[in-house]
Amino acid sequence: MILLDIFSYLGRMHPLVVHLPIGFLVLAAVFDLLTYKSNYAFLKPTVPLILLLGGFSATIACVMGWFLSQTGDYDYLILRNHKYTGISVAVISFIFYGLKSTFSQAIFQLSDKTFSGLLLAQMCLLSYAGHQGGNLTHGADYLSLSQITQKEKVQVSSLSQAKVFEDLVLPVLENKCQQCHQNGKKKGDLLLVNYQDLLKGGKNGPAIVLGSSAKSELFRRVTLPADHKEFMPTDGKPALTPEEIAVLKWWLDEGKGAENIGFTAVPHHEKMMAVASNMLGIAATTLPQESTIIQAIINPNIPKQVDEKALQNAIAGGFNIRLMNHNPVMLDVSFIDKKATPNLALLVPLAKNIVWLNLNQLNLSNNVGSSIALMSNLEKLRLEKNNISDGIASDLIGLQHLNSLNLNETQVSNVTVTELKKLKSLQHLYVWRTKVLETQPNDTNAHVLKIISK
C-alpha cells in the first residue's frame, strides 16, 4: 500500500516535471538556429548536450506520466496519443544526440540545415504531445475552434432573467467538478459538462434524481464527510461551499431538477434570493423576514469574526488551520505532528469557530473531552486511533451540530453508541476495530444514524 502511494505521489509530479524537457528541447532548437549567425557560432557545441538533458528529463517525465495514468479514468485515445508522442520525443532526443556524436560524424556527415529541419519537426511533435496532455487536463475542447467561435455568455442582470441550471448550477459544476469529469478525463465514467450528462450518469447510475436531492448520487457525494473515500471533489480540490450546496439541493427538490426552469418559476424562490444574488454578482432584493435555505445549512451561532491573535498562537502551537468560510468564519483544524501532544488550550478562543476537528492518532485520552465540549458548533470530529473509551460520550453529547464522528480503533463499546444515539444531529458514526458489537443495530427512531463498523 505504501509503495502504491509513492507511485501515485510521483505520478502527480508529472505536470511539474514535464516542463523540464520542454524547456531543454526548445532551448536546443533556439540555440541551433542562432548558430547560423557568426556571433552565436560558439553555441553549436552546446546543442547536443542540451538534447541529451532533454532526452533524460523526457524519460523521467514519461515514467511519472505512466504512474499518473494509472490513477485516473482518462480518455483512451487521447491518453494513447499523449503517451506515444511523449515517448517518441524522448527517443528522438537521444537519436539526435547520437547523430551529433563523434562516432556518428565519423561515419556520415549530416548537413546543418537537415539537422535544423529535424529539430523543427521535433518541435511540432513536442507541441502535439503537449496539446494532447492539455486535452487530458482541461478537456478535449480546451483549444478547439469552438472556443474561438462560441459567443460569450450574456451576464444576467436580475434574478428574473436567470435560469437555475444554466446560471447557478452549471457554473458550480464547471469550477468544482469538470476537472475530473470532462471530455478527456471521465472519473467513474461520469461526464458533468451538460444537463444530459447528469441524467446519463456514470458507473453508479444517474448523477441526479429529479425531485429528490436525497436520492441523487451527486448530492450525496458532495455532502459526505471530507475524509470519506467517496467524497467529491477528490484529491484535496476545493469542496462546494454551503451556498453552492444549498443551491444544488434547492434546484433538485424545489425545481425538480428541470433544465430550463427560470429562477422565479421555482416554488419558494424568495428563500434563495440572497444566495443567488451573491453567486450571480447582482444586487439582492430580499425581504426582511426572509429565512434562506443557506441559514439552515450554516449554523447561525458560528461567529462572523475570529480572534486573529489566538489563530496565530494556535498555528505556532502546531495546529494546521484551514479557513472554510469567511462569513461566518468557519475553521477546519488538525494536528499533524503525531509525535507531539497538542495543547488544546490554544483552541479555546477559537472554539465556536471550529467546525471540523481532526485529532487522530495522537495518543489522547478521555481528558480531551472537556476541551472538545467547548466547540459547540463542531460538525465533524476525528478521534480515531487514540486511547479513547466510553467516558468520552458524556462530553460529546452536548455537540448539537455534530454529524460525523470517527472513533475507529479506540476502546469504545456499545455503551458509547447508545449514548451517542441521543445526539439527533449525528448521521455517521465510525467504530471499526472497537469493542462495539457488529450486531449493533442502526438507529431507527428519531433520526437515521449510520454506524460503520467494518
Structure explained in plain terms:
The protein is α/β, with parallel strands linked by helices and 454 residues long. It folds into three domains: 145 residues; 139 residues, no CATH class; 145 residues, Alpha-Beta Horseshoe (Leucine-rich repeat, LRR (right-handed beta-alpha superhelix)). Helices cover 42% and strands 7% of the residues.
Terminal CA distance reads: 19 Å
Count of individual beta strands: 9
Shape summary: globular
Gyration radius from CA atoms, angstroms: 28 Å
What is the helical fraction, as a range of percent?
Answer: 40-55%
Any idea how many domains?
Answer: 3
Count of DSSP-assigned helices = 18
Low-confidence stretches: 285-296
Q: Which whole number gives the mean pLDDT?
A: 84
Structural class: alpha/beta
N-to-C SSE string, H for helix and E for strand: HHHHHHHHHEEHHHHHHEEEHEHEHEE
Main sheet: strands, sense, barrel: 7 strands, mixed
Name the beta content range: 5-15%
Strand order of the largest sheet: 3-4-5-6-7-8-9
Give a quick precis of the structure.
The chain is built from 18 helices and nine strands. With 454 residues, it is α/β, with parallel strands linked by helices.
